[in-house]
Amino acid sequence: MSIIVALKNINKGFKDGSTFHQVLDDVSLSLHQGQTVALTGPSGSGKSTLLNIIAGFEHLDSGQLLLPSATNTLASIHLDDTSPWQDQHWSRFRRQSLGVVFQQFNLLTPLNVKDNISFSLSLNQQAWSPWCDDLCEQLGIVELLSRPVETLSGGQQQRVAIARALAHKPQLLLADEPTGNLDEQAGMQVMALLTDLAKQSNTCILMVTHSDQCAAFMQTRWHLQQGHIIETHVHASA
Ligand SMILES: Nc1ncnc2c1ncn2[C@@H]1O[C@H](COP(=O)(O)OP(=O)(O)O)[C@@H](O)[C@H]1O
Ligand SMILES: [Mg+2]
């Protein structure tokens, strides 16, 4: 299985007044094509920070973020290096290979549903494809395509956020408590859809969740505690 992204000996902390709080302590991991991982851990343990680092929303203090190079060997991306190769490689990864679903949906509110999904495609110079129709059909949002997103319910907005994140068939989907704002039944439905759709596009999922039921949809569980990742479960059947 090929590696999509790897972290090597990552450290990340934040200053809290005069004290420094180490959030990620020498964390190493790799994410592979088609792999599904639930990231659990106490509140404040650094789950969102880890996702933000992989998504490039947050800088690391030390360590390496590695992406496959053209020859498929892992190459370190130095995020403070502005050389064109680094820059292009990193921004191409973020544009083409990454889909992100946040707890708060983060949809573009002046736009309707279709334009939200199309905007994300356009960043990648991609047009609406049969896969997008298929996604919307499976997510049950076809009738909503012309509706402004702010007129939708939480569950509907979450489905749109998932369509937007998967429309360009990313290699990696980062989801931060994607069902956190939904009731249990809607949450389970969204989880089942999300995992099924990711399977269809062979997308790797790294998903933060507090729910054991949601975590059970993933093959592997990584538990983050005191800055370290402990792999706790591997579901043979998933
Ligand atoms: N931008 C930031 N500035 C200062 N502290 C932060 C920032 N982001 C996160 N933290 C702190 O880092 C710790 C981990 O946060 P977070 O990754 O959001 O945890 P989790 O998602 O597991 O609840 C918390 O103590 C949080 O207050
Ligand atoms: Mg969080």
Account of the 3D structure:
This protein has helices spanning 47-55, 84-97, 113-122, 130-139, 154-166, 184-200, 212-215, and strands at residues 3-16, 19-32, 36-40, 62-68, 74-77, 98-101, 172-176, 204-208, 220-225, 228-234. It is an alpha/beta fold and 238 residues long. A hairpin with a 2-residue loop joins β9 and β10 (228-234). It is globular. The protein starts with a strand and ends with a strand. The structure holds adenosine-5'-diphosphate and magnesium ion. Adenosine-5'-diphosphate binds next to β2 and α1. Belongs to the ABC transporter superfamily. GO terms for molecular function: ATP binding; ATP hydrolysis activity. InterPro entries: AAA+_ATPase, ABC_transporter-like_ATP-bd, ABC_transporter-like_CS, MacB-like_ATP-bd, P-loop_NTPase. It holds the Pfam family ABC_tran.
Mean pLDDT, nearest integer? 88
Ions, cofactors and other ligands present here are: adenosine-5'-diphosphate, magnesium ion
For the biggest sheet, the summary is: 6 strands, mixed
Number of strands: 10
Distance between the termini: 16 Å
Query: Percent helix among the residues?
Result: 25-40%
How are helices and strands ordered from N to C? Answer: EEEHEEHEHHHEHEHEE
Q: What is the CATH topology descriptor?
A: Rossmann fold
CATH superfamily: P-loop containing nucleotide triphosphate hydrolases
Number of domains: 1
Count of DSSP helices?
A: 7
Would you identify the regions where 5 or more consecutive residues have pLDDT less than 50?
none
Q: Beta-sheet strand percentage?
A: 25-35%
Family: Belongs to the ABC transporter superfamily.
InterPro entries: AAA+_ATPase, ABC_transporter-like_ATP-bd, ABC_transporter-like_CS, MacB-like_ATP-bd, P-loop_NTPase
Organism: Shewanella holmiensis
Pfam family, one: ABC_tran
